[in-house]
Design brief:
It is a single chain. The protein contains nine helices and 13 strands. The chain is α+β, with helices and mostly antiparallel strands and about 475 residues long. It folds into three domains: about 220 residues, no CATH class; about 80 residues, Orthogonal Bundle (Helix Hairpins); about 140 residues, Heat Shock Protein 90. The strands form three sheets. The chain has a six-stranded antiparallel beta sheet. A five-stranded mixed beta sheet has the order 8-10-11-13-12. The two termini are about 65 Å apart.
Length: about 475
């Protein structure tokens, strides 16, 4: 049972069924109450009409024995001012709800004469004239009566009338509630039979519609399970042509799979390229050490040191890339780019091209070490391609702090300006490894820029050559 209700289809069907069931019960109760109230009001009207008909006869001085009391349809009682039953409908065997349970009349010859004091005691406006019928709404009560052996529930209406020589009389007439009870019972029976059938139809339709709507989800789940089992990220989930939320889910899932596949492939290429780059300096260093062991006089100490430094720098680059890929945040320290540039450039001793500086103080928030690494990588790249000089400039540009590194070399072809920021990529004229470049410097620089909320782009320098521009948000005062 628990597994059944873990299904979205089952929960949707149950939820829809419960909502419809509550709505049907509420609507059915409202209909029954309204039907019962209307029929009750109708019976009350019929009872009052019958009572006023008898009262009209009394007002016309029709003797009690000649009254048309219509006992089969409307049980009638006529009661005098002393509460005595003076006339009753034919075949009335018992009655309750009128206040007078008697069914045997005891008529009086005439009303007792009134004294002057009695006239004074009555409120003016309440007393009825002889032959007058009360215009006030009839008092209505519920009760039961047995007529000709059949007992039913009734609505009784009481109408007052003043009759000459008989005084004030009250006419009670009833209207059967059998039609009301029969109609309510029929409606209730129809609801008890129809509502479950309607609820079953709604539940079945909801189940089928939900199953059809969720069929693409099952297909997506099955394909994702197959992708997980096979580890084949080239596969894609089916995309329904319904243009709804499920279709958008499938599209997003395929985009996620594509991004994941691209990331995995990029990671594999990175591992392969890193292994290739590490193999060369390690093999060279091993060869030199083995030669040194066999022939100490032939040991190239400078070459061994150069290979060791190259290996150390490559390992540091790979470690930094791994930290960046892991989402390492740059930190929240304030860094003056002009001071950073002066410090980093003053420590360079083996540059072959002259370095010119045009530095304006501007502060940013981030990692001093990572920003220094970016500047060093940009200057190293410029040194490899410059003919005579490299220019380093810092400046503020609105909300941005800018570092510009340019050279007077051949520049970067426009079609290659995005590719040079990929890892282990070298342009054709820079593929020699004599200078120790592994194709990671610009990739690291762009990743660091992105981590600091900035950008790194390359364009053509005003005097020819390449112009690398790093933009990061400046500190606002």
């Amino acid at each position: 049972m628990k597994r059944f209700f873990s299904s979205v289809r089952a929960r949707a069907t149950l939820g829809a069924s419960l909502v419809v069931a509550v709505a049907l019960v509420a609507a059915g109760a409202a209909v029954l109450l309204s039907l019962r109230a209307n029929l009750t009001d109708q019976a009350s009207g019929q009872a009052e009409s019958a009572a006023r008909g008898v009262a009209s006869q009394l007002a016309a001085n029709v003797p009690y024995g000649d009254l048309d009391l219509d006992g089969e349809d409307h049980p009638v009682q006529v009661v005098d001012g002393d509460g005595r039953l003076v006339a009753v409908g034919d075949d009335l065997e018992s009655i309750s709800g009128t206040g007078v349970d008697s069914v045997k009349p005891r008529p009086a010859a005439s009303a007792p004469p009134k004294s002057e004091g009695d006239d004074d005691d009555e409120s003016e406006g309440d007393a009825l004239e002889a032959g007058e019928i009360s215009e006030d709404p009839a008092k209505v009560t519920s009760g039961s009566a047995t007529v000709d052996g059949e007992t039913q529930d009734y609505r009784f209406a009481a109408v007052e009338v003043n009759v000459e020589k008989k005084g004030d009389l009250t006419v009670y007439a009833g209207a059967s509630l059998g039609a009301q009870q029969s109609a309510v019972s029929t409606a209730l029976t129809s609801m008890l039979i129809g509502f479950p059938l309607l609820l079953a139809v709604i539940a079945l339709v909801t189940w089928l519609v939900t199953r059809r709507a969720l069929r693409p989800v099952d297909a997506i789940r099955s394909e994702m399970a197959a992708i997980t089992a096979s580890e084949d990220l080239a596969r894609r989930v089916p995309e329904p042509d319904t243009h709804d939320e499920i279709a958008r889910l499938a599209t997003t899932t395929n985009e996620t799979l594509a991004a994941l596949q691209s990331s995995v492939e990029r990671q594999r290429r990175f591992v392969a390229d890193a292994s290739h780059e590490l193999r060369s300096p390690i093999a060279s260093l091993r060869t030199q050490l083995e030669v040194g062991v066999a022939h100490p006089e032939l040991l190239d100490v400078d070459g061994a040191v150069e290979d060791t430094v190259r290996l150390q720098e490559l390992a540091a680059d790979l470690l930094l890339l791994a930290r960046l890929d892991a989402g390492e945040k740059p930190g929240g320290g304030h860094v003056d780019l002009a001071a950073l540039a002066r410090e980093e450039l003053s420590q360079r001793t083996r540059d072959r091209a002259d370095v010119r500086m045009d530095l304006e103080s501007v502060e940013v928030t981030g990692s001093r070490g990572q920003l220094a690494r970016v500047l060093g990588n940009l200057v190293n790249n410029a040194q490899r391609h410059a003919r005579s000089h490299v220019t380093v400039a810092t400046r503020a540009d609105g909300a941005w702090a800018v570092i510009e590194v340019s050279d007077d070399g051949d520049g970067v072809p426009e079609g290659e300006r995005d590719r040079i920021f990929e890892r282990f990529v070298r342009l054709d004229d820079a593929r020699t490894r004599d200078d120790g470049g592994a194709g990671l410097g610009l990739a690291i620089a762009r990743d660091v820029a992105a981590r600091h909320g900035g950008t790194l782009t390359v364009s053509e320098a005003p005097g020819g050559g390449a112009l690398f521009e790093l933009r990061v948000p400046a500190v606002t005062r």
